[in-house]
Design goal:
Structural class: alpha/beta
Helix content: 40-55%
Shape: globular
Bound molecules: zinc ion
CATH topology: Metallo-beta-lactamase, Chain A
Radius of gyration: 21 Å
CATH superfamily: Ribonuclease Z/Hydroxyacylglutathione hydrolase-like
Distance between the termini: 56 Å
Number of helices: 12
CATH architecture: 4-Layer Sandwich
Number of domains: 1
Length: 335
């Protein structure tokens, strides 16, 4: 009897494992570009996730891969510094009032990030702001809170971080309470420090439904999070409200907030400006219109991808994290 129970238990476990792998295989075959695009969107390298990897391991491996990138530093002004490398681009406002940090990299590089922040002067870690819920932008929230900082984000970021997510082959459990934002807003928020006014505003669903911009009025710097991938096709997270038309509207909002001197910080890619954001916005519109025409004329996804509707754009935009065929697939599925 006991043996039978054990056999049934083992059979059930094997069945569950097999089902999970089958689902993963389906995702790879049909939900492609999810697995591949995710790996590349979050790590600008030729990382490829193995389809059979358990989703929890996939997320851990992604963290480890992203953590290999060194932290690069770029001054944006006398008290504003951009850090890039192991996750989305970070902007730090520093000075005697303390530090206000936008985004967090992945948790595995917290010691290096803390070192870099400590090197900017003795002011306390006052605030960290999450541009959206994705882990490569919010992963070290708990570390910041432990260091005494408040965590500011949109209402939806707190909601999304409290949920379970299966995204691009990776599995995310709800964040523990200690990692959640401590101060959230629906439309706008403003912080004052070091003679700077830091304005936060909601961007209606674009890359996700949690996106915000952060604008430094004095320094004329605008952080757009992952609404802006500078110089490359973006990743769009349809599982939490992202859409191609939302991305275009978000880019337009960024343009409205910029002048010709504004330093525009993307979620991924090098520091940009209004001209770079304009080129990116125009590319999004071009691809959207081309794919829309083909889809409206009745072409299947496979036919549209095979037709390579972005061929003339790929030399400029297709060398980044999201490959041309992945981007066309995203756009097709989101129209
Ligand atoms: Zn993102």
């Amino acid at each position: 009897m006991r043996d039978t129970h054990e056999a049934q238990a083992i059979t059930r476990r094997v069945w569950i494992r097999t089902s999970t792998m089958f689902a993963g295989g389906l995702a790879l075959a049909h939900g492609w570009p999810w697995l591949r695009a995710s790996a590349e969107a979050w790590a600008p390298s030729d990382l490829a996730l193995q389809s059979a990897a358990p989703p929890e391991d996939a997320a851990a491996r992604m963290r480890a891969q992203i953590a290999k990138s060194p932290i690069a530093t770029l001054a944006l002004g006398s008290n504003l510094t951009m850090l890039s490398g192991p996750g989305g681009n970070i902007v730090v406002l520093h000075g005697k009032d303390g530090k206000i940090v936008v985004d967090t990299f992945v948790q595995t590089v917290w010691p290096q990030l803390k070192n870099a922040l400590d090197g900017m002067g003795p002011g306390p870690l006052r605030t960290v702001i999450d541009t959206h819920w994705h882990f490569d932008h919010s992963d070290s929230n708990a570390n910041f809170r432990e260091a005494g900082a408040e965590v500011v984000a949109h209402d939806n970021t707190r909601t999304r971080m409290s949920q379970t997510h299966d995204l691009l082959g990776m599995h995310f459990e709800p964040s523990p309470p200690a990692a959640l934002p401590t101060r959230t807003f629906a439309a706008t928020d403003t912080l004052q420090a070091n003679g700077e006014s830091v304005e936060l505003g909601y961007i209606p669903p674009a890359h996700t439904d949690t996106d915000i911009y952060v604008r430094y009025a004095g320094g004329n710097v605008l952080h757009l999070g992952d609404v802006f991938f500078n110089g490359m096709y973006p990743f769009i997270d349809a599982t939490t409200g992202g859409s191609i038309n939302g991305m275009i509207a978000g880019a337009d909002k960024g343009l409205d907030l910029s002048d010709n001197q504004t330093k525009v910080v993307p979620g991924h890619g090098p520091l940009g400006d209004k001209a770079a954001l304009t080129r990116y916005r125009d590319m999004l519109v071009t691809v959207r219109d081309r794919v829309q025409r083909l889809k409206t004329s009745g072409r299947s996804l496979d036919e549209v991808v095979a037709q390579k509707p972005t061929a003339d754009l790929d030399a400029t935009w297709g060398k980044g994290s999201t490959r041309p065929e992945n981007f066309v697939t995203l756009v097709y599925n989101l129209l």
